[in-house]
Design a protein that fits this description.
The chain has 240 residues and is of the alpha/beta class. Helices cover 34% and strands 25% of the residues.
């Protein structure tokens, strides 16, 4: 893949004597890349490895040409975890000003982040009084403060209604169109069609990667969920 943002080579992660990631090889380029698979398959562990906060047992992860988690990437990678990282008793603007100081965000980064997630009309509202979708956007704004080249999002749409999920995916594509590569995980297969590229994951392995159209064609089906199930069956048959 040309212009690779992330390159993962033979990555292994072992926890409690169990291999959580099994020799992964993959590349991630510009645009919106979806990491899809059932809960517990290793998605969060892979994202943590990309960000550089996961202890690994072998292999390597290179981000923007340098090893994951190293100092040169501190201002180039934004990360939103599943759990909320913002303070409910502060306003949107107060949260962002606090995190901008912590992260060393450039002048104007707070206003840019608020505008990017379409929260200008709520900047003086206390976060604890916002809707679930708005709170997710505050967390996303924090991840955008350093004007990152790569944005890593761990199940940002979980628990949201279909309208809010649609709006967030539209936002991810606007962010990608502005030049930030977006890597977003989900266990909801109907979100697959919203991605430029897909990584389908099961039991610590990547079972398919490519565009949604290419993966469906590979499996000979009309939807990504059907492709996932067909690829799981094929993998099971080969293992037998």
């Amino acid at each position: 893949m040309m212009n690779s943002v992330v390159v993962v080579d033979a990555l292994r992660v072992v926890r409690g004597g169990r291999e959580v990631l099994v020799g992964l090889d993959l590349e991630i380029g510009p645009g919106v890349t979806g990491l899809l698979g059932p809960s517990g398959c290793g998605k969060s562990t892979l994202l943590r490895s990309v960000v550089g906060v996961q202890r690994t047992a072998g292999g390597s992860v290179t981000v923007l040409g340098v090893p994951a988690g190293t100092t040169p990437l501190r201002d180039r990678v934004g990360y939103q975890t599943q759990s909320s990282s913002v303070y409910d008793d502060l306003t949107v603007a107060e949260n962002l000003r606090f995190f901008a100081r912590v992260l060393g965000g450039p002048p104007g980064s707070v206003d840019e982040a608020v505008a990017a997630v379409d929260l200008a009309g709520h900047r003086d509202q206390v976060v604890g009084r916002l809707s679930g979708g708005q709170r997710s956007r505050v967390g996303l704004a924090v991840a955008l403060l350093g004007r990152p080249d790569l944005l890593v999002l761990d199940e940002p749409t979980v628990g949201l209604d279909p309208v809010l999920r649609r709006d967030l995916w539209a936002l991810f594509h606007r962010i990608a169109a502005d030049g930030t590569a977006v890597l977003v995980s989900s266990h909801v297969m109907d979100e697959a069609e919203r991605c430029d590229q897909l990584l389908l994951m099961r039991e610590g392995r990547i079972i398919a990667q490519g565009t949604p159209a290419a993966i469906k064609a590979q499996a000979g089906v009309d939807d990504v969920e059907g492709a996932f199930l067909a690829l799981v069956d094929t993998a099971g048959g080969e293992a037998a």
